[in-house]
């Protein structure tokens, strides 16, 4: 096992990066069907994190990159996936640890980063943790107008995602579907026990509901994009609002229950236990397409909206194969990869020409440039802890 592989494995399991040194990108001799050597193929270590549906999609993307992309015979992608909510060090923690350890040649070749992970990494390091994007090596990025929340020129957006309001169209008449937060609150209070959001920290939909509920009471729009602790002083009104809603949430027996994970609320909605919940657009649409969520489950947006974002991908400055990292980024913006993202997880595509949107036509109405983005960095830990203490214990 080469030193660089050892570094990645130990980092993923125990964050033991400080004592490990890497070596150059691994290479394999590839052969033609007749057995002759056709050249060397360099491994590209792809790192991602998230729910299991994200893992499954990345497995398909990596497989397609290796079998069908223009980079076949030059690079071979290897997936390193960290399932969210499983304990241990996060991907962001590992990237920060590698940077602070002074690593220069690692197997973190290209990394998938959401807004929270990106802002956390930047708050603990600086933008030099990421390599400047070489746009000459990412021709498929031409025409992509979406921008990241930070580190522009360092991280490339490749898909959009947003939290929406999911509802049962058989129990919620069209003229009763909320269009604003005020209307949603009225509906919740008029239908006690028929609404739920998942515990923040276990899934992004519940996170979005809690964060937007709190930050709707803060007049400065920049607050949702800041990790400055000063904003904690303005959380009181939002937490009072969440306490007010608490008695109207979904109950099991006589106690209010906040489901675990995004899937928990979606399961309650699908089973008819509730009539409405916040959830990810891609999660609802992809499961509806697969038949595990019935057609009667529809999605809508409200004003002020829940949060949405563009997911980005970047090459760390200490990547051992930067060229391969850029190749994988370019592939993610190809029509083939964008189609996989749409069809497998109902991601909002950032490239539309040549992309198959069959079954996910609702995505075309979602403009990523109008998303209400948020990136709270380390404040998320404090916010979730306060929710656990003040809301989660109400019973």
TrEMBL record:
Residues 1-23 form the signal peptide. SUPFAM superfamilies: Periplasmic binding protein-like II. Keywords: Signal. Gene3D superfamilies: Periplasmic binding protein-like II (3.40.190.10). PANTHER family: PROTEIN YNJB. This is Extracellular solute-binding protein.
């Amino acid at each position: 096992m080469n030193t660089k592989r050892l570094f990645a494995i130990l980092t993923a399991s125990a964050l033991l990066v400080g004592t490990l040194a890497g070596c150059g990108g691994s290479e394999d001799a590839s052969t033609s069907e007749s057995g002759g050597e056709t050249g060397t193929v360099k491994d590209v270590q792809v790192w991602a994190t998230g729910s299991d549906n994200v893992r499954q999609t990345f497995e398909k993307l990596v497989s397609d990159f290796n079998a069908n992309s223009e980079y076949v015979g030059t690079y071979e992608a290897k997936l390193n996936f960290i399932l969210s909510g499983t304990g241990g060090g996060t991907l962001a923690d590992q990237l920060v640890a590698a940077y602070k350890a002074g690593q220069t040649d690692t197997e973190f070749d290209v990394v998938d980063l959401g807004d929270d992970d990106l802002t956390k990494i930047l708050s603990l390091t600086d933008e030099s943790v990421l390599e400047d994007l070489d746009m000459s090596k990412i021709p498929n990025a031409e025409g992509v107008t979406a921008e990241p929340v930070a580190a522009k020129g360092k991280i490339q957006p490749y898909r959009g995602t947003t939290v929406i309001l999911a509802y049962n169209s058989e129990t919620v008449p069209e003229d009763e579907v909320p269009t604003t937060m005020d209307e949603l609150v009225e509906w919740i209070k008029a239908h006690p026990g028929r609404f739920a959001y998942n515990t923040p920290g276990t899934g992004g939909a519940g996170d979005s509901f809690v964060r937007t509920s709190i930050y709707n009471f803060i007049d400065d729009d920049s607050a949702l994009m800041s990790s400055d602790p000063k904003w904690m002083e303005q959380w009181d009104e939002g937490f009072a609002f969440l306490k007010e809603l608490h008695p109207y949430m979904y109950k099991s027996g006589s106690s209010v229950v906040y489901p675990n994970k995004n899937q928990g609320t979606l399961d309650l909605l699908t089973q008819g236990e509730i009539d409405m919940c916040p959830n990810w657009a891609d999660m609802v649409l992809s499961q509806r397409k697969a038949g595990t969520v019935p057609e009667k489950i529809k999605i809508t947006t409200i004003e002020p909206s829940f949060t949405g974002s563009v997911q980005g991908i970047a090459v760390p400055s200490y990547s051992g194969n930067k060229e391969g990292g850029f190749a994988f980024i370019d592939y993610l913006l190809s029509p083939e990869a964008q189609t996989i993202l749409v069809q497998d997880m109902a991601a909002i595509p950032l490239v539309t020409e040549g992309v198959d949107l069959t079954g996910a036509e609702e995505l075309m109405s979602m403009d990523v440039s109008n998303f209400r983005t948020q990136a709270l960095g380390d404040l998320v830990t404090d916010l979730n802890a306060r929710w656990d203490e003040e809301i989660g214990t109400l019973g």
